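Sequence in, structure out. Go.
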Amino acid sequence: MRKEKKSNTVGRDKVNYMSLISAIASKANAGSIPLLSCNNLLSCSLEILKRSIYRRIFGEGYIRLLLQYVLPIPLYWKDISLQHWIDLFDLAVGFYKDPPEDCSKDSIVELLDLIVNHGCGQSHLALKVKKRFSLLTEIVKKQETDLHESVLHLALTYCQRVYTNFNICPGVFDVTVPAMNDSVLLSAPNAKR
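Output:
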């Protein structure tokens, strides 16, 4: 009984903490100019996500924070250093292999997609991403039906960024991709409409 009560308290504290962090990030990004320093947000997030005990407890919340309040903000992209992009990419790759508690693979693939897309566009992250092609191939091969669209986005983003940065076509992923309708293809990042 006592252990259950402590577990409920920890869970409630976790929710309260992440609600506060999300509210701060949301309010700071509500205007046309973000009020929080991107480097401070990233440094704090990376510090939490690199430590296994914090990652286990708060990983899902900080991944959501990155997905909602950091990586979609164009004004932040230019302020993110190459080292931060590399750290984010390495963490996201690690999360795919060993996801934090309560974090869906779909969120992790979406995180990888944003990192590859914006990181390669703003820095030399493409060199690191190109070296990890085997992991991306593995993700595409293992695609679960509920991850189909996000894995497709990641594969297309990867191909676009490698082609753009190295002027080469990475070739076809060695998998059979089920037939897709045009709406999925048109919803891909930077798709021609």
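Check: Residues 172-189 have pLDDT under 50 and may be disordered. The chain has ten helices and no strands.
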